[in-house]
Amino acid sequence: MSIRTILTNSNLPTVKQLQCFLAVAQELNFRKAAERINITQPPLTRQIRCLEDLLGYELFTRNTHVVHLTKPGNDLLIEAEKILCLLNGLKSINNKGMDRIRVGTTNTLNFSNIPSIDGALNSIAGLDSTDGHSMNSGQLIQNLRKSSLDIALIGEKNLRVEEDISFHWIYREALVLAMPASHKAAIQSQVSLEDVSDLPLFWFPSSANPAFYDKCERLFKRLSFPLKRIKEPGDSIVMLSRIAEGDAMALMPRSMCTFSNERLCYKELTDDHSKYLNIDVYAAIKNNDRRSSVIDVVESLKHFHHAE
C-alpha cells in the first residue's frame, strides 16, 4: 500500500485499540487487562470488538472461564508490540541525552480522566510512565524506596510513616456517590449520606489506604446515624452491578465513574460532605533525591494543574 493511500485510509486501528488488545493478549483475562490499563471492562470489550470488526477476523476465543488467542491474534500480537514500541520511542527521538524519569501512578484514580495530570504526563519530556496501574499507593511507595521508581503519584500521604519520603500536593479529586437510580434521593442534584442512610456503604479495610480511610472515617463519626459498612468486592464491575440492583452504595473518585447502567447513577455530594470526602493526590519522591530533572517534573505537574 502506498503512503498516499495510507494517509487517506480511515480504517486503520487506533493506538487505544492496540493497547487494549495487547493488555488482553498478555493477561488472557478481560477483567485483569482492564485493571492493568486503568479502565473498566465494558469499554475494553468494545475496543476489542471494534478492532476485530475493523480487521475482519477474531483475535480471541473466549467463554465465561477461558480466553485464548486465535492464530491471527498471535500474529497480530507480534506486530502490535513492535508498533507500540516504535510509537513510544518517538517521544525520545529528541531527548537521547536526557535522564528517563520513571513515574508510577496509583490504581485508585484514572489519570486519563484527569486532564491536568494526563496532559502533564503526556507532554513533559523525559518521562517514562511505568506500568504502575495495578499498584496501590503503599506498593508505589515501596517501589520508590527500592529505587524502582523516581516519582510516585499517590492518593493521600500516610503521616504515620514515610519519614524518608517527601510529598508534593498536586491535585484534589472529588468523591462521587454511586447509588441505585431507583432510590428516592436519586432525583436530587446533590446528595448527603443522611439522604441515603438506609443503604449500606461498600467500604475497604484500613490497611488498603490508611490515610484515606482515616480521612473519611473522621466525617463518618460525625454523622447523625450509624453508617453501615459492608465489604467492598474485589471487582469494581461486580460492586457497581450490585449497587444498580439496589443493594448498597459506594463513594468513588470522579475519574473512576465510567461504568454505565440505567439502574445506576452518580451523584455529587453536598458541600458539607464534599469538603471532607475527597482524595488529595501527591507526587512522592525520596528526600535524598536532589536531581534537578526529578524536581523539575514535580514542579511541572504542580504547574499544569494550577494553570488549568
Secondary structure: elements and pairs:
Elements: H1 3-7, H2 15-27, H3 30-36, H4 41-55, E1 60-62, E2 67-69, H5 71-90, E3 101-105, H6 115-123, E4 127-129, H7 137-145, E5 151-155, E6 165-180, E7 190-191, E8 201-203, H8 210-220, E9 229-231, H9 236-244, E10 250-253, E11 264-269, H10 271-274, E12 278-286, H11 292-306
Parallel strand pairs: 3-4, 3-5, 7-11, 8-9
Antiparallel strand pairs: 1-2, 5-12, 6-10, 6-11, 6-12
Helix pairs in contact: 2-3, 2-4, 2-5, 6-11
InterPro entries: LysR_HTH_N, LysR_subst-bd, WH-like_DNA-bd_sf, WH_DNA-bd_sf
Pfam families: HTH_1 (PF00126), LysR_substrate (PF03466)
GO cellular component, one term: protein-DNA complex
Describe the structure.
This protein is an alpha/beta fold and 308 residues long. It folds into three domains: 3-90, Winged helix-like DNA-binding domain superfamily/Winged helix DNA-binding domain (Arc Repressor Mutant, subunit A), CATH 1.10.10; 101-172 and 280-306, 3-Layer(aba) Sandwich (D-Maltodextrin-Binding Protein, domain 2), CATH 3.40.190; 173-278, Periplasmic binding protein-like II (D-Maltodextrin-Binding Protein, domain 2). 38% of the residues lie in helices and 20% in strands. The chain is built from eleven helices and twelve strands. It has helices at residues 3-7, 15-27, 30-36, 41-55, 71-90, 115-123, 137-145, 210-220, 236-244, 271-274, 292-306, and strands at residues 60-62, 67-69, 101-105, 127-129, 151-155, 165-180, 190-191, 201-203, 229-231, 250-253, 264-269, 278-286. The strands form three sheets. Strands 3, 4, 5, 6, 7, 10, 11 and 12 form an eight-stranded mixed sheet that branches. The protein has a two-stranded antiparallel sheet with strand order 1-2. A hairpin with a 4-residue loop joins strand 1 and strand 2 (67-69). Helix 2 (15-27) crosses helix 3 (30-36), helix 2 (15-27) crosses helix 4 (41-55) and helix 6 packs antiparallel against helix 11 (292-306). The protein is globular. 31% of the residues are buried. The model has no long low-confidence stretch (mean pLDDT 86).
